[in-house]
Design goal:
Oligomer: single chain
Strand order of the largest sheet: 1-3-2-5-4
Helix content: 10-25%
Strand content: 35-45%
Distance between the termini: 73 Å
Order of helices and strands: HEEEHEE
Number of strands: 5
């Protein structure tokens, strides 16, 4: 009986030590730094549209993670189909939602900026 408890305790301790390690699959991107254009570097106008974009990644049970919460993905979402535009005067926010000690985690990057032309 003691050996069964010890084995169960050892297994639990091992799982806790590896929590968040991405044991089965991990494929996520998160922003660390990125340079955006300044108003002096683009053809800025007073009436430039303000847009917002969002990119997220998720993880479940410390075993599987997926998504792209990177800055570039959020900028691409903000610009949409505008292929000749550039985002400038950018503000970036990172939001992390974690449920039950990280059993489910969602990380989202939101960028807001003005759309200008090169």
């Amino acid at each position: 009986m003691f050996m069964k408890r010890l084995s169960a305790f050892s297994l639990l301790l091992g799982l806790l030590a590896c929590s968040g390690c991405g044991l089965i699959y991990t494929n996520i991107r998160s922003p660390y730094s990125y340079r955006s254009a300044a108003p002096s570097e683009v053809k800025a106008a007073a009436g430039d549209e303000i847009v917002s974009g969002k990119a997220c990644d998720r993880s479940v049970l410390f075993l599987v993670a997926w998504g792209d919460a990177g800055y570039a993905a959020a900028v691409k979402d903000a610009l949409g189909a505008r292929t000749d535009a550039v985002l400038y005067d950018v503000k970036c926010d990172l939001k992390v939602t974690s449920v039950f000690l990280g059993a489910y985690t969602k990380t989202c990057t939101t960028v807001t900026g003005r759309v200008g032309k090169l």
